[in-house]
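User: Run a structure prediction on this.
Assistant: Running it now.
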Amino acid sequence: MPTAVRTVMPRWVHALAVLTVVTALPLVLLGAEVTTRSVGMADPAGYRDPRYLWQSLGSLLGHFGVAGPWPGLAVEHAHRFVGMVVGVCCILLAAATLLAVRHPWGRWVGCLALFMVSAQGILGIFRVDLNALRGTELALFHGLFAQLVLAVLVGVAVLTAPAWWRGCDADVRSLRVPAALLSLLVYGQIVFGAVTRHLGAGWAQRLHVLFAFGVVAVVVWLVQAVRTGPGGRGPRVVLGLLCVLVLAQVSLGVEAWLRRFGTGDAVLGLTRDLKPTPTLNLVRSGHFVVGSALFVTTVVLNLLLYRPAAVGVAEPAAAPAAPVGAFAARMETVA
C-alpha cells in the first residue's frame, strides 16, 4: 500500500470504524424485535433508572422466548444497552478521525457518525417520554431514522478504508444514476414497510409491494450495465451481494405477508387465528433485518462509485545535495 494512503487514513482508524459497525449490528435485530413484539414501552422508566439495564441483561438468554413480561423487558433493555455501547464507540471514532486523519473532510466523518447516533438516542428517549402524547408516530420515525444511522456508520467504515483511497480502477460514472435511484427506492420501500408494521395502512401495503418491483427492475438494470461495460471489481462484488439480498428479501416478504395476513383460507371464507408465534416473529424481524442490509449495501455501492481518482498527500521535499558531495563529484569529473 502506498505510503500516502497510509498517511491519509491509518489502518487503526478503519478498524475502529468497523468495530463501531459490528457493535451496531445487534441494534438492527433488537430494534426489529422491539417492533415485532410491541415492547417499546415494556419499561417506560428505563432511561431514568440504569439499574434496569443490568437486571434485564442477566435474564436475556433465559427469558428471550418465554411468555410473560420479562421477554419484552429483556429485548427492550438490551436494545437500550447496546445503543449506549455504540455511543461510546462513536465518541472514540470521532476523536480518532479528528486527531489521526489527514484529509480536509475525512477527519469529520467520525463526528458525523457521532451526531447521527446521538440524534437517534435522543429520538429514542422522546419515543418513551412522549408516548402518551404521540403514540406510535415517534416510534415510526425512530425506526426510519435508524436506517440512516446504520447507513452512515457503514459509510464511515467504507470511507476510512485505505483501499477506498487508492482510486477507482474503472470508469463507473454511467452506474451512478441507477445506483442512486436504487438507494431511493429501497429506502422508500422501507418507509412504506415501516408504516405497514406500525400503522397497518392499506396504501402503505400497496406501495411497499409496488416498490419491490421497482427495486428488482433497477437491480437488473445495474447487472446488465456492469456486464456490458466496465464496473470495477468492488462494484461487481457489491452488486452480486445485492442480488442475493434481493432474492432473500422477496422470499421473506412473501412469507411474512402470508403468515401475518393469511393464505387462501380467506378466499374460501374461512378465518384463522393469526396470533404472534415465534416463527412469525422471526420471519417478520428477518424481513426487516434483510431490508436494512439491502439499503446499507446500496449505500456502499454508491460510495464505491465515487472513489477518488487518486489520493494526494504532500510528501517531504528531497534534501539538497551536501556541498561536500557536490565538490567531490565535480573533482571526479575534472579528473
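The chain has two domains: 1-166, 168-309.
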